[in-house]
Amino acid sequence: MSHLLIHNPIITKSCSIPTSRRSTPSIFPIAFMPLLHPPHRSIVPSSRSSIIKCMANPRRVKMVAKQIRRELSDMLLTDKVLQYAVLPEAALGADRYLSSLTTISDVEVSADLQVVKVYVSVFGDERGKEVALAGLKSKAKYVRSELGKRMKLRLTPEIRFIEDESLERGSRVLAILDKIKDENDKKTTEGQAEDLQESSDRSNDDWEGDDPDDEGIIYRYTAYTYVNENAYHTHCKTRVSNDIISTIARK
Amino acid sequence: MAKAIPRIGSRRNGRIGSRKSARRIPKGVIHVQASFNNTIVTVTDVRGRVVSWSSVGTCGFKGTRRGTPFAAQTAAANAIRTVVDQGMQRVEVMIKSLGLGRDAALRAIHEVVYY
C-alpha cells in the first residue's frame, strides 16, 4: 500500500474525467496502475480535503465494457429467467412468433467501473417496449448478481437499463433523406427533359433560357446538402455514434 | 442431414441450381445472422434452399463500419431487392445472435415492406 501514498498529491485534482469514449489517456497520472482500489480518505495531515478517487485505465474501461456487453448478450440469449422477464410469452415456448425484439445496442461504463449504463433498444409496438423495459428493470439486481458470477471483477457495478431510441431516429432520418433524394432526382430528370426539348426547339442564340434552369438545379442541390448537414449536426449532439456513422457513410 | 432433393439426370448435366433461378416463390424466409462485427442476410425458401444473400462486406463496407446498424440496413435492402421483383408476399424473419444488425435489419425489412 506504500505506493498509494506516494501518488497521493497527484491524484486529488484528477476528479473531473470525461466519460466519453474518446478521452485521451494523457490526462491520467495513474495510467500505470493496473488494479482498482476502493476510494478511501487519506491520513496525510497536510492535505485535509483529499479524497482519493481511483480511476482505471481508459483502455481497461473499454475492455470491461466490451466484456459486459458480451456477457449480457449471452445472458439475454440463453438465460430463461431474463428472457421471460423481457418477453412473457417465451415461457409458453413461443420460439418462432415473437411480438418484440430486444437488443443491447450499447454499454457505457463509468470511469471508476462502478456504474454501467446499458442502452436497450426494443423493436415492436409501444406495449411491447414498455413490457420489455419494465421486465429488464425489475431484474436489474438479478442481472447484477449473474454478472458477478460470470465476471471476475473486484466490485460488480450497478446496472442501469436505459431505453435507446437512436436506432429509430437514425432510420427515420435516413428515410427522410431518401425521400428528398428521390424528389431531387425526379426534378432533375424532369428539368433535363425540358431542357432537351427547349434546345431542340430553339437555336443556339437563346442562351439566356438555360440559366434559370441551371440556377434552379443548383438551388435544389444546396437545399439537399443543407438538410444533410442539419441532420448531421443534430446527431452530433446526441451521444450515439451509430447515427453519426450512418450519416457519414451516406455522404 | 441432406434434404431429399430429386436429382434429375446424371451429374453430366451440370449445375441444376442455375435452372431453378427463374422460379416464383410467394413465401420465403429471411435469415439474419447479426454478429458484433458483421451482418449476413440470406433469403431462402420455406425449405431452406438459398435464393440470394447479401452481407455488409459485399455492400462495400470494411473494417469497423461493418458492425454498424446502418450497414446492416443497406445489406438487408440489398438482399431484398432481388427478391421483391419475384413477387414474394409472405416472409418469415429468423434472427441469429446478438448484434446491432438485429434491430436495424428488421427495421429495413419492415420499411421495404410498407413503402
Automatic annotation (TrEMBL), chain A:
Annotated region (Disordered), positions in chain: 186-214
Classification via SUPFAM superfamilies: Ribosome-binding factor A, RbfA (SSF89919)
Pfam families reported in the protein's UniProt record: RBFA
Name of the protein in question: Ribosome-binding factor A
Automatic annotation (TrEMBL), chain B:
SUPFAM superfamilies: Translational machinery components
Biased composition range(s): Basic residues: 9-22
Chain residue ranges for the region called Disordered: 1-22
Sequence similarity: Belongs to the universal ribosomal protein uS11 family.
Keyword RNA-binding: no
Keyword Ribonucleoprotein appears in the UniProt entry: yes
Organism whose genome encodes this protein: Forsythia ovata
GO CC annotation: ribonucleoprotein complex; ribosome
Phylogenetic classification of the source organism: Eukaryota, Viridiplantae, Streptophyta, Embryophyta, Tracheophyta
HAMAP family membership: Ribosomal_uS11
Name of the featured protein: 30S ribosomal protein S11
Keyword terms, alphabetized: Ribonucleoprotein, Ribosomal protein
Gene3D superfamilies the record matches: Ribosomal protein S11
